[in-house]
Design brief:
alpha+beta, single chain, Porin, 43% strand, 5 helices
């Protein structure tokens, strides 16, 4: 028998955790077939941005189906409606629009859906044993704690007063290799759009510490659970100045969030970041991030502290 009294918080938590599995699986499969980071990033971000909402409403809809009480049969039917029907149609459409290739669309879609069918049954079985949101938080904490042994650590500490914000950040593995001081001024253009002017002094350690001066212009769009920030940066450093564009798409179902960030510089997309995390309190968030720079990847544990006045 199943528990029909599932809460909205529980459905939201299931959606975020399931997206994490999906992002990792789809990103690997897409890159294997296309060998292109920008294609991988686009297909992964668009698909999981859409399915973050699809999964939530799919879970809420199935709460109305009370005739199917057997856990195994219920999981199989949910898998067929979600992965087989919705998954094939939506992912197939996205893959074709991005790649323009029927062959790659078929390969990506069938491989991804096939793997997800198996993982979906396992996911449903595990969640049937989880009774509260606190259990999910405990699981995330254990995953993050177990990652510390092989991940870099990044920390950002910020202070905000009205439209002004200042933060300092450091990054380290065995030793500190990056730090910055950052200043922001925010101006709300309308209820969805925010313009931000920023200045950053970055210090990067490569044999010796080197400094970069970075004026920035950002435009952030926010609506419901989705937030997209596009940022243009002029990197002023020794030798030459370089323009960099980066775009970060975030989906939040409190307290969980997932994000994808892509970097463009010198005529190419050269870096992707994939995030999953939680807003522990209104002043503290924690995340696990995988960063790929021209094919080389690192794991990062990050914390963000914010004081507002």
């Amino acid at each position: 028998m199943i528990n029909i009294t599932e809460t909205k918080m529980r459905s939201g938590s299931k959606s975020i955790v399931w997206r994490l599995f999906g992002v990792l699986i789809l990103a690997v499969i897409t890159y294997v077939y296309t060998k292109k980071w920008i294609t991988t990033g686009l297909i992964t971000a668009i698909h999981h941005g859409i399915f973050l909402m699809v999964y939530y409403f799919h879970e809420r809809l199935w709460l109305r189906v009370k005739r199917v009480q057997n856990l195994t049969y219920r999981s199989l039917l949910k898998m067929l409606t979600y992965e087989t029907l919705c998954g094939n149609i939506i992912l197939g459409t996205i893959a074709y629009l991005v790649t323009g290739s029927w062959k790659q669309m078929t390969a990506i879609t069938l491989t991804y859906i096939g793997i997800k069918h198996v993982v979906y049954i396992f996911n449903e079985f595990v969640w049937d044993k989880i009774k509260t949101g606190k259990t999910v938080a405990a699981i995330m904490s254990m995953l993050i704690f177990s990652s510390i042994c092989f991940a870099d650590y990044w920390n950002t500490s910020a202070v905000q007063y009205k439209n002004f914000k200042a933060d300092v950040e450091f990054r380290m593995d065995n030793d500190m290799y990056y730090k910055h001081i950052h200043l922001d001024w925010h101006h709300k253009l309308n209820r969805h759009l925010t313009l931000t002017l920023s200045g950053r002094e970055s210090y990067i350690k490569k044999a010796m510490w080197r400094v970069e001066h970075k004026p920035m212009l950002s435009l952030t769009y926010e609506s419901g659970i989705l937030k997209n920030r596009a940022r243009m940066t002029l990197r002023i450093k020794e030798g030459k100045d370089i323009w960099r564009l980066r775009n970060k798409l975030t989906a939040t179902l409190s307290p969980w969030f997932v994000a994808l960030e892509a970097f463009f510089e010198r005529g190419r997309w050269f870096r992707n970041r994939y995030y999953v995390g939680a807003n522990v309190t209104k002043n503290l968030s924690i995340f696990l991030m995988r960063q790929y720079t021209e094919g080389e990847g690192i794991w990062v544990i990050g914390t963000k502290l914010m004081a507002r006045f």
